[in-house]
Amino acid sequence: MRSKIVTADEAIALIRDGDTLASTGFVQTGFTEALLSALEHCFLTTGSPRNLALFAAAGQGDGKTLGLNHLGHEGLLRRVVAGHWGRMPTVAKLALDNRIQAYNLPQGIICQLFRNLAQQRHRHSPGRTDRRAQRAAATPGQDSGHSGRLRGRG
C-alpha cells in the first residue's frame, strides 16, 4: 500500500494552475508554514502554479514574511476570500493595487463554509448559513464584501 505521507514538495506538485486553496490556522498556530513556503519556492522558480484562489478565515502569519505572505506574488493568486487581512500585508498590497480579486467576509462565515465542506454538506449547499449570518456577511452597499475594482474578472 502506498504511503499517505508526502513531502511538502510532493504535495505542492499536486496543485494545478487555477486551483482553489483553503488555509486554516490562527496567526502562526495550526498553520502549514512548510507547505506555503514550498508553494512560494515552486512559483518563484517555475512560474507555476498560478492564478490560484485562496479562502482563509483568520489572519495567518507574522504580519511580515511568514504565513500567507508567501503567496504575495503577482500571478500566483487571482482571488482571495479572507476574514482577516492584517497578517498578510504582501497579499493585501496585491488587493489594494487591484492585482487580485479581493473579498473580505466575516471569519465566522468562512469557518462555517469549511465546517460544512468537512461534513460533506456541500452536496446540497456549500455555503449554507442561517439568514442572520447571511445578512451580516457583508455591509449593505459595500458590494457584498468585495474589496477592489476587479469584480468582472475571473
From TrEMBL:
<protein>
    <submittedName>
        <fullName>Acetate CoA-transferase YdiF</fullName>
        <ecNumber>2.8.3.8</ecNumber>
    </submittedName>
</protein>
<dbReference type="GO" id="GO:0008775">
    <property type="term" value="F:acetate CoA-transferase activity"/>
</dbReference>
<keyword id="KW-0808">Transferase</keyword>
<feature type="region of interest" description="Disordered">
    <location>
        <begin position="121"/>
        <end position="154"/>
    </location>
</feature>
<dbReference type="InterPro" id="IPR004165">
    <property type="entry name" value="CoA_trans_fam_I"/>
</dbReference>
<dbReference type="InterPro" id="IPR037171">
    <property type="entry name" value="NagB/RpiA_transferase-like"/>
</dbReference>
<dbReference type="Pfam" id="PF01144">
    <property type="entry name" value="CoA_trans"/>
</dbReference>
